[in-house]
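Thought: the user wants the 3D structure for the chain below. I'll pass the sequence to the structure tool as-is, report back what it returns, then summarize two notable features.
Action: structure_tool
Action Input:
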Amino acid sequence: MSAPVGNAKGEAAATASEANHGPGFDATERSADLSRDPEKGDPQAEKHRGLQSPTSGDSSLDEDDVYNEPDEYTRLLKYVDLQSGKERHASEEGDEEEEGELRRVWYMPWKRRRAQDESNKKVPPSWLETEMLKGLSDEEVTKRRPRFGYNELESPRTNPIVQFIGYFRGPILYVMELAVILAAGLRDWIDFGVIIGILMLNAFVGWYQEKQAGDIVEQLKAGIAMKATIIRNGQERTIEAREIVPGDILVVEEGQTVPADGKILAAYDDKDQSKAKQILEHSNRGSSESTAEDQSGGEEEEKPKEDKGPEILSLDQSAITGESLAVDKHIGDMVYYTTGVKRGKAYVIATEVAKQSFVGRTARLVSGSSAEGHFKKVMTSIGTALLVLVIVWILAVWIGGFFRHIDIATPSDNNLLVYTLIFLIIGVPVGLPCVTTTTMAVGAAFLARRQAIVQKLTAIESLAGVDILCTDKTGTLTANQLSVHEPWAVEGVELDWMLTVAVLASSHNVKALDPIDKVTVMTLKDHLKAREMLQQGWATRKFTPFDPVSKRITAEVECDKKRYTCAKGAPNAILRLTNPSRETQELYKEKTQEFARRGFRTLAVAVQENGGDWQLLGLLPMFDPPRADTASTIAEAANLGIRVKMLTGDAVAIAKETCKQLALGTNVYDSERLMTGGGMSGSDMHDFVESADGFAEVAPEHKYQVVEILQNRGHLTAMTGDGVNDAPSLKRADCGIAVQGASDAARSAADVVFLDEGLSTIITAIKVARQIFHRMKAYIVYRIALCLHLEIYLTLSMIILNETIRADLIVFIALFADLGTIAIAYDNAPFASEPVEWQLPKIWIISTVLGALLAAGTWILRGTLFLKSGGIIQNWGSVQEILFLEVSLTENWLIFVTRGGKTWPSWQLVGAILGIDILASIFAIFGWISGDQPHNGHTDIVTIVRVWAYSFGITIILALVYFVLNSITWFDKLGKSKRGVKNSLQEDFLANLRRLTLVHERSGSGGEDYFRFESDSYVSVPRSMHPTSDAWPLRSGDGNKNGQSHGKKDGVRDSAKDGRK
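Observation:
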């Protein structure tokens, strides 16, 4: 009976094969085909596969080959291949042209081109078909790079030429460029050349200093660049992660960071992908069966969990999701850029580079702000005000000139256009952009050498004004080095045995040890007997990492033919596992509570021998001690007017214990009160956050809320962070600080990136920022005073005497003023003892007073020259050169007044000013460019000495006036913003608005819809609080055409809420 049955089965199979594969199918031939694996390089199989492939896309085909093919079906297959090739080529070359917004080209406004959004670029599917063991070739990498760029979040470096040209743009520089045109029109080639020289000098110095600072920052970034292992040209190699392109084959393993978004192809030991293919086939089969069951409409049953096969990798995604537990990844799962590999080793194909990755898109959301910075607003306001003053002074001169019948363009040395040229030169501080940029660039380079990368120069100004620093605990306030503190063993248990069991119940992968496992293992250095116990021939049979359900780690080990199960975990979880005596339990709980009050993280240890009862062994209290310098640094921060608030993810008890040790204040609260408010009004909530010393169990959204509340009260807030989820709060803060080890997204959103741990680094950066701010403020006061000095003097001189300082000498005065003070960037500036700000009203008043005094000093000197005795002239001298020398000396020395007297000036500043003064004296002695003057413009040496002495006297008077003005209390506070100002009405309104929820109801008759507000605590607002007793009725016809309810059910809350997230 068996043979016929077998024959019947064989015939049925053959019939089925013929039905499935078409007529003429030879099963023997098919079997032979199957025995020849195309992947092994069988030529016949390759040919067969090529003919069968509908997507082979033969590039050698053209339309003539298709249309001239005589056989009908061969022609059809060639047509499919041709179209497939075209589609693939289009996907590789043409996608970017079809995406993006149409924008006009600035140099051809009549044309529009598509502006490609970096984050929305699509990777062609064909790029993800890379052979796993071969990888991409160098030629293919070169081809793909231009389309997606480098695998990094940082913006591409600015073109140096474009950056240099940027120093010729801006309102102030446009005025100087207008002066160049005017000088050319007047054929005043000396002024023309000198003004161009001033513009070029300022542009070059500013560009060079910014480039130098940028180069230092780039060197630091290169030192922390991520490395990646990839397959290229069939070889495994290590490269910088920025070199990765889509389609690269990556090798990721425990202890590494995932360098790009990608898909898991296979485990590292599955070289031929045979296991991976089986897993995918099994998974796809199960998915198909599940879909078929769903479509059959059978009875609903609980679906079994999808079988994805064994875990290939275990990833730490906390930087992205905030979830502290590792996430298991299987074949075909996605892995994400910047996540850490905790276990496993696998081949991954890169599907997205940094800018298009999940992290990149998140970073783009917070880094795409185009808002004008505060520093730029201040510079723009100062420049605009000076331009208005220039126009006013020019108008006054022209009106006076008309009364004196001065012509517009003649004579060549005394006409209204010459006067206009002079005022254009002296009226705007052409060196302002250069000197401020240079000062910040030099400061940024100084900070970079102290492991602080300034992402944008204007962040220095924000850092200088910070009055509240919200900092995390681990690594900043503490040493980020957990240590076991006084381990406790149950009575009768040897301490070394407990420590041995704790080490056995830890991961032994030294490449990627968990911090807690690491500190557990490191206890062996102080316990020699425990080390000896571990050398008795232990073998690990099974290790189970931390389980969030059981809250413990277990390891099955063997020694001397005895099997032990070692466990380490949460004290309560381990206690439930064991059954100790009542006395032991009470002592155990007492110790656990004591450690908790002291802020320790406590782990319990237990062991089971040969399947017997569990034995409780003891407790391991762990603590991250404060850094040695943190307490003194916090005290120093308080002296600098900075209040430090601690925001930590640890428990309240741990946070309070840390605050006690640092004298930081113990008003530390659970972060839950930030979200719920605890029934507090908006104003009370602001008071609560402002007065708190810190918050515990903080999530990224809590950081954002704290920053927002403090900013509402007028505080300039700095915030530290390291994860992707911290990016919004770093961007929202006045100064976002990415701490050491921060993710790329956090670094991209931050203003300053620190490469070293510790609060002292941050405080040092703040002090340096205040020094830089002091230099810029001193220069701005100095430069405004210089503009006003010559504007006042020359306007009166032109109107009263119809006299001016020659334009040729004026341009050299402007050149000397900027050339010498560029060295202010290297000055020994003091740092303020409180947060600094511009105080523009105070700056303008001081500058105006100093400018008026300078003008008065120049007028007095000019007045002495009318005396018969010659006044300040001893033997002979030129009026033009004497005025030129006095103006140059007093203006140059003014910088020593505005910089203050708390520190000695740097040798660079003194040397630059002294060199300029000597050069100005040489001009006066030899009468260079003095025009038609007696004695050919020469001035005797005694007169030169007299002018120096007179100028020194003027400087002493200026210093006394400057000191007196800054000693007046109310004047010193003029223009300062008020911080911590309470606005109860606005704060309460915004808080109540967040807590309200729109609730929809329908009347019993169904004729009308009603809407009312309920508070977040789900207590209805009383009817008496509503504007009308009808609770804002909305007739059914008004809501929608069918008169249906806008909500889901009567009296049920609508899903849309008013701003709660």
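Final Answer: Structure generated. Confidence is low (pLDDT under 50) at residues 1-58, 94-98, 1016-1061. The longest helix spans residues 759-801.
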